[in-house]
Amino acid sequence: MSAEYCLKDYIKKNNLIGVEVASAGTCAIPEPMGKITKLTLLSFEINPSKHKQRKINAKYFDEYDLIVAMHENHQEFIKKHFEKEVPLFDEICYNKKVSVLDGNELMPDWQDHADTIKLYTKYTIEFIHKSIPMFVKNMGDFIEK
Questions:
Q1: Residue 104 burial (CB < 10 Å; 0-12/13-18/19+)?
Q2: Domain residues for 120?
Q3: Domain of residue 11, CATH code
Q4: Which one of 1, 71, 101, 109 has the fewest beta carbons within 10 angstroms of its own beta carbon?
Q5: Distance (Å, rounded) from C-alpha 117 to C-alpha 113?
Q6: 3-state secondary structure at position 55
Q7: What is the C-alpha to C-alpha distance for residues 61 and 56, in angstroms, rounded to an integer?
Q8: Angle between helices 2-13 and 114-138 in degrees, nearest 10
Q9: How many domains would you assign to the chain?
């Protein structure tokens, strides 16, 4: 979700035309956006308040030229359910097959480390925001012609 909003913001600020962005997860459990996520995005003057969770489905592979996974688990889910190979966010940005982990993936006992998870969440969103120019620069290399 953070990558979606950071990318939309970059597209708008750089007047890029013809780029449509959406996000979808491997599960879409209705839950409120985390406070740190919202505050960090707002610190970049990005308002994510209209975000609606969606679960990825087969139609996205026809509607979008590029599907991106943040984590290897997401790649595996897509391969298993849709028989598609998709690149990782860091692979597009930095040519590295590295996952962007959610806090619960980083620390299985994340509930016991609230302060650490808050810092990690903020860092992760800042990393995504900083990486968007590289993503835009390189994304064409990952779109099938």
A1: exposed
A2: 2-142
A3: 3.40.50.2300
A4: 109
A5: 6
A6: strand
A7: 9
A8: 40
A9: 1
Q: State residue 69 phi and psi, 5-degree precision.
A: -105, 145
Positive/negative CA dihedral, 36, 44, 95, 26: positive
**pLDDT tens-digit readout, 42-85:** 999 999 988 888 999 999 999 999 999 999 999 999 999 999 99
Report the C-alpha gap between 65 and 69 in whole angstroms. 14
Owner of token pair 């598609």: 84
Question: CA 117 to CA 49: how far, in whole Å?
Answer: 22
Question: Over 90: is that where the pLDDT of 18 sits?
Answer: no
Q: Which two tokens stand for residue 24?
A: 């979808």
| Single-letter amino acid, residue 82 | F
Q: At what angle do helices 35-43 and 114-138 cross, to 10 degrees?
A: 50
Tokens 């679960």 locate to 55
Max CA distance (Å), the chain? 47
Tokens matching residue 12: 């708008």
Alpha-helical (H) ranges within the chain are 2-13, 35-43, 59-63, 72-82, 89-94, 103-106, 114-138
